[in-house]
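Lesson 9: reading folded outputs for more than one chain in a single document. The general rule is that every protein is listed as its sequence immediately followed by its structure tokens, and records are never interleaved. Here is the first one.
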Amino acid sequence: MSSSATTEVTGQEHVWSVSEHLDDILGTVRPLEPIELQLLDAQGCVLVEDVTVPVSLPPFDNSSMDGYAVRVADIAGASEEFPAVLTVIGDVAAGQGEQPVVGAGQAARIMTGAPLPPGAEAVVPVEWTDGGLGEGPVSGMRAHSAAPEGASGEVRVHRPAEARAHVRARGSDVQAGDRALTAGTVLGAPQIGLLAAIGRGTVKVRPRPRVVVMSTGSELIQPGEELAKGQIYDSNSFALTAAARDAGAIAYRVGAVADDAETLRSTIEDQLIRADLIVTTGGVSVGAYDVVKEALASVGDEDGSGIEFRKLAMQPGKPQGFGSIGPDHTPLLALPGNPVSSYVSFEIFVRPAVRALMGLPDVHRPTARAVLSADKALSSPAGKRQFLRGQYDADAGSVRPVGGAGSHLVAALAHADALIVVPEDTTAVEPDTDVEVVLLG
């Protein structure tokens, strides 16, 4: 961590800018070490190596339709009035090893995905034929188990086809030796499907970070329980656990910890075994019961680990804590307890840390410029970067505030999909002014 946190300027405590605090976090957090995982366990992880295709996809010419594999010359000029009559020599099903050889005047009944048999040059859909029934065009094939005779006899083809019609060529998807995926790719369902299709059972990735989230406060109780006088429901730990999962982490929520320094310290120590990052919310301000500050301010090893508590030039989210704890120097971010303050702090500081642990090159939410749609000017404290909740209209290129500036207004937060950023040197933003927005969707 930067030593500037303890620097005093003209006898006053150093106030960190948002950028300074974020830079300190990202300068400390390092990507997790790569591991080899089974495909489904690698979902959501970041690939750390290029993956080369060992075998072409598809690995053989195959049919894109249910129909008949034929020679082009045998169906030239075919029509409903004068159909081409071909001898059916058997079936070609997907996964079948041996295929019949299609000679002059012959056809093989073929299923979607089945290899194009030797001698065949094209596939005619079954809808272009009588299906071997000796009548008009049919809409489909009869099941082989119910009508095995469909693999023999004659079929009438009512339309001609060009060479390679309805044939998926070998390697038309990817060729052997092609690069299937590049390092840095986040593995979603399509990427995992591709890895399976080219025969990869495992893949080398950076694992999803394990994030432990805990709230502090003797007034907090579990949702679903009966509120007593002076109690409120613990919403922060649920919101931040969900936010950590949204960021790509494996997140664990710990029940609210009472305002007792020793209890909190032992709870954090117990959680270190399953944490790549710990997030606390509450207890970081200057009150007599700010237990996180009391419990962690003196924690540290001789090598410089420990937690620093800072004042930031931002609203909401002025009090923040950051450092490392435990034998593995697990990063810990201590966020304020007001619901909006904690969520905004998560988006600005914790989410980038999670993405950095994943090894992603771009750790930030996307931003956009938008025109402020408001009835009156927005005020902002001098010298602080303010983050206001907003609803962004991409089509109109505008954003409108949701709720007030209070850091307890959790209902407004639930209807916001963006943060309106007011810079430190701006004290008022007039309607129709161009502003920066952080997109939360």
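And here is the second record, again sequence then tokens.
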Amino acid sequence: MKTLKDFNFENKKAIIRVDFNVPLNDKFEVTDATRIEAAKSTIIEILEGGGSCVLMSHLGRPKGKQDEFSLRHIVDDIKKIIGVNVKFVDDCVGEKAEEAVANLEKGEVLLLENLRFYSEEEKGDVAFAKQLSNLGDIYVNDAFGTAHRAHASTTIIAQFFEGNKCFGNLLAREIESIDKVLNNSEKPVLAILGGAKVSSKITVIENILDKVDHLIIGGGMSFTFIKANGGKIGNSICEDDKMELALDILKQAKAKNVQVHIPVDVVAADDFSNDANTQICDIDSIPDGWEGVDAGPKSRVIFDEIVNKSKTILWNGPLGVFEMESFAAGTIALGHSIEKATKNGAFSLVGGGDSVAAVKQFGFAEKVSYVSTGGGAMLEMLEGQTLPGIDAILK
């Protein structure tokens, strides 16, 4: 796996695929700069190695050229975070972009305009990728969030950099962290899968059953398993058409000696609202008109014990509707358990949109081993898929 360490960037122009698809408010201010911060170490390392950086990214889903999706809106934020001046050119291919790159001096950074202003980007157009390749000497992919897309800038461009392509620091860390969980883990290995639907996690579960010793199934998806086993779940979320599958997963787990843990009690609410009436009840005895919205106190104690016996922990998905303060306690308790296990030497990887949002919201981001930046890309890797953006660098 080639990384920045394998190249001398002295007087070289690195064209870097970053993921600056950041959320903006109605004043075009960045509301979460995590993705920009994540790219900083790659950019700084190349600049300190005597090179210059040409940054390319998409932003949103524009239909053609739309100013509201222009990357010029985030230039000041990038300057502030990276700590160096950032030039901007309002195109990403063609004469204007090529001239801006030609004028780029050693130690400088240039941001190209939104790649998705051209439909050729998402189509993986070879001619478009060739035009992008004219803008650098070395291609660096540091965009894990888009590594599962075979787009021009994430995959196709790599063919024009035979021997001159590598992973940036962020993407290298993502690959190493997921590999550590799936292939080089210290046992016992625990996977915690939460969220609403079994259907969105089936392939992940099937792929990781060979790698884990314990599997905690929490959140909304737990009710499909409980109902499949004859439990009463009241008005809780359930995928009735996936109950057979849930039973099959439990059978597979048993055959592979994987211990599956599902909450034993829940916080139930009489309405999907922060102000609802609540009660604690056994997960298989939820009264009609009530729905499970969080892991209960007994479950939190059981999960804490399992987490703290584990040496490798993967967390993907919350244990309850943590966005509502009244139903966040289970997810917060799990965060504390993982924090404690990490302090005691366990390797903990958190990934997937909702769990990443939860660890940030409750202050656990710095207290776990690694927080993945790519939701869809991480899930596909956990499913055992080869990601085109990664494969293109390894070829």
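What the second record shows: Residues 23 and 32 are 6 Å apart (CA to CA).
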